[in-house]
């Protein structure tokens, strides 16, 4: 979120002195940047201003200062309340793709009258009626760019291949479990292009898993179970020789449980639950992220 050169009907303090109406006072977002393989850290993130009025309003609880982190590509948006003393903000890289915008705003928590001799000359001597949620301070901040590679440990990447068929109607797909080393999911070009966007967005990836990959894996596991039951002499190694992708299922199960998958368990386990467990139980994650996204669109709520 950026205000850039937007005009307000009352004085606003800005990090850009050209746009600020508070004389020589600006509105700074300070932090020390740190980075690990998994997170970008805004260490000791805090706001700073020499404006006595802004500091007084903050001390009186009439304004709050928030750091807003958003990524339009992943539809991510979250607010973090800031103080003058500072706090660490950790940003997991898996939540972002490409450009991430980080900005800061001071907003009113209640209605009040604003007047000060700190204002630019044109605003001095005027009482301004401020309403709750009005922006009092703005800092358009900066941006970071993130790019990620798929992990070799990712089961979905290990066993699924998504391909295009120009003969398919939009909205339909097929699952082929006997082709090569992967379960092949075929869909129309339009659906494939939409899939490519959704799959790179962590906010919606679990939704895609529930809609497509879980049912596809259930279909594949069902074929594996049928193959086992057709001949009592067969074991899980035989299943892996028939369906090469099943070897990744065995490896993933051991990483998940710490023990080997047995033939008796595979014959009796609920395949629906088994598929969801192997794919990280995406239902709960997808519902939680969609609820969080819904909260982010309601407006007027303060979150931390």
Describe the structure.
The protein has 304 residues and is an alpha+beta fold. It has helices at 52-59, 155-159, 189-199, 202-230, 236-242, 246-257, 263-268, 271-278, 282-296; strands at residues 13-14, 28-35, 39-48, 63-71, 76-82, 87-92, 98-108, 112-114, 128-130, 135-146, 160-164, 173-176, 183-187. The strands form four sheets. A five-stranded mixed sheet has the order 1-10-7-4-5. Strands 2-3-6 form a three-stranded antiparallel sheet, with no helix packed on it. α4 (202-230) crosses α5 and α4 runs antiparallel to α9. The chain is elongated and about 90 Å long. The model is unreliable at 148-153 and 300-304 (pLDDT under 50).
How many β-strands, per DSSP?
A: 13
Q: For this entry, what is the oligomeric state of its chains?
A: single chain
The structural class is alpha+beta
Strand neighbour order, sheet with most strands: 1-10-7-4-5
Q: How far is the first residue's CA from the last residue's CA?
A: 17 Å
Evaluate the radius of gyration.
Answer: 27 Å
Q: How much β-strand is present in the residues? A: 25-35%
Helix content: 25-40%
Q: Largest sheet, if any?
A: 5 strands, mixed
| Average pLDDT over all residues | 84
**Uncertain segments:** 148-153, 300-304
Number of helical elements: 9
Principal-axes shape call: elongated
The SSE order reads EEEHEEEEEEEHEEEHHHHHHH
């Amino acid at each position: 979120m950026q205000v850039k050169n937007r005009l307000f009907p009352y004085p606003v303090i800005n990090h850009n002195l050209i746009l600020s109406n508070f004389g020589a006072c600006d509105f700074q977002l300070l932090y020390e940047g740190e980075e690990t393989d998994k997170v970008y850290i805004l260490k000791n993130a805090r706001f700073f201003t020499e404006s006595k009025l802004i500091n007084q309003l903050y001390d009186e609880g009439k304004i709050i200062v928030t750091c807003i982190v958003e990524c339009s590509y992943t539809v991510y948006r979250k607010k973090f309340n800031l103080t003058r003393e500072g706090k660490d903000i950790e940003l997991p890289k898996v939540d972002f793709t490409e450009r991430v915008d980080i900005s800061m705003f001071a907003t009113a928590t209640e209605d009040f009258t604003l007047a000060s001799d700190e204002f630019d000359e044109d605003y001095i001597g005027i009482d301004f009626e401020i309403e709750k949620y009005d922006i009092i301070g703005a800092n358009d901040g900066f941006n970071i760019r993130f790019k990620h590679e798929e992990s070799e440990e990712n089961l979905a990447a290990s066993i699924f291949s998504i391909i295009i068929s120009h003969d398919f109607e939009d909205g339909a797909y097929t699952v082929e479990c006997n082709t090569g080393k992967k379960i092949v999911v075929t869909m129309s070009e339009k659906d494939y292009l939409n899939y490519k966007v959704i799959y790179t967005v962590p906010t919606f990836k679990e939704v895609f898993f529930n809609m497509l990959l879980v049912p596809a894996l259930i279909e594949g596991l069902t074929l594996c179970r049928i193959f086992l039951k057709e001949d009592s002499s067969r074991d899980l190694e035989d299943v892996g020789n028939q369906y090469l992708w099943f070897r990744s299922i065995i490896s993933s199960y051991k990483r998940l449980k710490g023990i080997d998958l047995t033939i008796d368990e595979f014959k009796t386990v609920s395949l629906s639950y088994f598929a969801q467990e192997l794919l990280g139980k995406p239902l709960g994650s997808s519902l939680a992220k969609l609820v969080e996204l819904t909260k982010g669109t309601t407006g007027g709520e303060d979150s931390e």
